[in-house]
């Protein structure tokens, strides 16, 4: 598998250790929804699967278990440090059917076709996701599956309305995404985009985990922490959130006092099959 050189566009969430730890905690929570989607999309033992924007390797490792030792997963990630950590985790898990290639997702080259291409929380960060989907189609065999999980923030924002601080945190993240070119509605937008690139109308589902514990709310308060530099760069004021040092505790206190659950970002699962 060969790759060309990477392009350098900024990645919104950055590459701090704390963001990488957050991604792993997030992956643990949402793994069952991801696995359900991939099973429904027909990923099975023996398949050769491409994972776009593999980050810490969680999606690649999940797929590795579905395809088994006779299958193979190739993760595409442009950040070398992320790949190093993902490789360590794959080795620690004893998986021998996962490899990672350092490349921009726009520039994947492979001489062998894949049975499926997957990705989670990657298309939302790309300036031209349709062109990436078009290139992907050339890498998949006829009848192969394309399956992505991407967010929809509109119901997330609506569901936060009764909790003022939680709502402000979500509003700040959303505004930072919008101003920096990240698409918070990438999930539902894939209905049109799949068809524009020549795929059939995709099967779609939306899942939103609910929770109230500190690790759960921390996935979002830590996300605004990762986005802080980008928010500043795009003049998104975070003053209304108060002291960042105590933000997680104040959000958790609000949730606990309200005796309710909050939602994690609703995840839209989207899949379709390339024509035979
Ligand atoms: C939000 S993380 C998701 C990681 C993983 N898919 C998961 O769900 O746990 C997005 C990852 O995509 C990578 N990424 C973003 N833009 C990319 C691009 N143009 N080419 C390759 N990787 C990219 C980032 O470096 C980051 O590791």
Structure description:
The protein is of the alpha/beta class. It has one domain: Rossmann fold. It contains 9 helices and 9 strands. The protein has helices at 17-40, 58-67, 80-92, 129-139, 153-159, 164-180, 186-196, 214-233, 244-258, and strands spanning 48-52, 72-77, 98-102, 114-120, 140-151, 203-207, 210-211, 262-263, 267-273. Strands 3-2-1-4-5-9-6 form a 7-stranded mixed beta sheet, sandwiched between helices. Strands 7-8 form a two-stranded antiparallel sheet. Strand 1 (48-52), helix 2 (58-67) and strand 2 (72-77) form a beta-alpha-beta unit. Helix 1 packs parallel to helix 2 and helix 6 crosses helix 8 (214-233). The longest helix is centred in the N-terminal third of the chain and has 24 residues, at 17-40. It starts with 16 loop residues before the first helix and ends with a strand. Residues 1-8 have low confidence and may be disordered. S-adenosylmethionine binds at residues 11, 13, 23, 27, 53-56, 58-59, 76-79, 82, 104-105, 120-122, 125-126. S-adenosylmethionine (SAM) is lined by residues 11, 13, 23, 27, 53-56, 58-59, 76-79, 82, 104-105, 120-122, 125-126.
Quickly list its features:
single chain; 276 residues; alpha/beta; 7-stranded mixed sheet; two-stranded antiparallel ribbon; 46% helix; globular; disordered N terminus; binds S-adenosylmethionine
């Amino acid at each position: 598998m060969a790759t060309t050189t990477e392009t350098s566009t900024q990645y919104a969430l950055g590459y701090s250790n704390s963001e990488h730890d957050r991604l792993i905690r997030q992956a643990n929570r949402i793994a069952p929804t991801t696995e359900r989607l991939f099973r429904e999309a027909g990923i099975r033992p023996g398949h050769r699967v491409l994972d776009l924007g593999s980050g810490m390797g969680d999606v690649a490792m999940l797929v590795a278990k579905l395809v088994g030792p006779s299958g193979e997963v190739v993760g595409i990630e442009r950040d070398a440090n992320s790949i190093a950590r993902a490789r360590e985790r794959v080795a620690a898990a004893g998986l021998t059917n996962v490899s990672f290639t350092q490349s921009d997702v726009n520039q994947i080259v492979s001489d062998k076709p894949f049975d499926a291409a997957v990705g989670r929380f990657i298309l939302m960060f790309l300036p031209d996701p349709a062109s990436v989907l078009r290139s992907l189609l050339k890498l998949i065999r006829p009848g192969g599956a394309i399956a992505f999980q991407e967010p929809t923030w509109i119901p997330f924002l609506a569901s936060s309305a009764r909790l003022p601080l939680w709502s402000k945190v979500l509003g700040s993240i959303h505004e930072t995404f919008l101003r920096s070119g990240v698409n918070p509605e990438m999930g539902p937008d894939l209905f049109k985009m799949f068809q524009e690139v020549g795929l059939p109308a995709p099967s779609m589902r939306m899942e939103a985990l609910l929770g109230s514990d500190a690790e759960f709310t921390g996935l979002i308060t830590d996300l605004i922490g990762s986005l802080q530099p980008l928010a500043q760069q795009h003049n998104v004021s975070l003053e209304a959130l108060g002291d960042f040092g105590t933000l997680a505790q104040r959000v958790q206190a609000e949730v606990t006092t309200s005796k309710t659950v909050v939602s994690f970002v609703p995840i839209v699962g989207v899949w379709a099959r390339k024509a035979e």
